[in-house]
Amino acid sequence: MKIGGDMPKQSTATALARRLTEAVERAGVLDTPAALAGARVRRLIGRGRLKDLISGTGLGHPAHPPMTSLVIGSFLSALLLDVLAPRSGSAAANRLTAVGIVAFAPTAITGISDWADTELSDEAVRRVGLAHASANSGALLLYVASLVNRLRGRRLRAASLGLGGALTLGLGGYLGGHLAYARGVGVNQTVFDPGPAGWTPVLDSAELVEDRLLGAHADGTPVLLLRHGGRVLAIHDRCGHRGCLLSKGDLDGTVVTCSCHGSRFDISDGTLLSGPATGDQPALECREVGGRIEVRAAP
């Protein structure tokens, strides 16, 4: 059996897709309009209950992904009816197109909100996010035109516009997937780092004064420590929302507020008290041995 040899090459489609995303990530011309859009979104949405609702804080994960399923599912179902049942399915295709159009706005708001939280610190996200939104907006215009033609009885033109909308939506969806799975937008920043399994020393006990946040590291895991009421408390220091260090936040009792986007956590057990984060922070067990503070991941 032959071992070694030439490595398999990327497919043409994969190579083209990578070139596309790399080109968009390098497109500095997108920075100014994207930065202006991001700043306006942050001003309009602000912080509080509306932001939590849009972010999906109550769901335990971002609200944007499940909402995209409604939009994409409605539009693609209409396309399938155009192809498979152009006469008997015309009324249903009309309604599905209308549902997709109506659902588009709230879906876009949830996505834009997530993007605006990240674009300040990641220029690639800033640029790809704007391209993603532009492609989806183009798809929306095509679907609106398709619906108008459907209502006027121009089925062939409506179906053609719907096909164009589907292709454009596919481009937007690909860029959205790149944001989520290649750039980590919307992904819990602590999910793969619960902390050390065994007891690990992080600092001298004397370094941790009462009621003052202190950041440290335990075998590469950033840890937020607090001495409060004679107890030592610890949670993961990297905010699960966008990765900002909670040790740079504000403290009120045992509650820390992230300095970046305002998520609030109880350091005593990592419980999420308010968003836009969507999950608890990993809590760590603490003990003091021989003048040193040690931590390990909570079971």
TrEMBL record:
- Where's the Rieske domain? 199-295
Q: Which GO terms describe its molecular function?
A: 2 iron, 2 sulfur cluster binding; metal ion binding; monooxygenase activity; oxidoreductase activity, acting on paired donors, with incorporation or reduction of molecular oxygen
Q: Which residues cross the membrane?
A: 96-116, 128-148, 160-181
Q: Which UniProt keywords apply?
A: 2Fe-2S, Iron, Iron-sulfur, Membrane, Metal-binding, Transmembrane, Transmembrane helix
Write down the required cofactor(s).
Answer: [2Fe-2S] cluster
- Please give the PROSITE patterns that the UniProt record associates with this protein: RIESKE
What CDD domains does the record point to?
Rieske
Q: Does the keyword Repeat apply?
A: no
- Entry-linked PANTHER family: FERREDOXIN-RELATED, RIESKE DOMAIN-CONTAINING PROTEIN
Family, per entry: Belongs to the bacterial ring-hydroxylating dioxygenase ferredoxin component family.
Spell out the protein name for this chain. Rieske domain-containing protein
Organism (species) = Mycolicibacter engbaekii
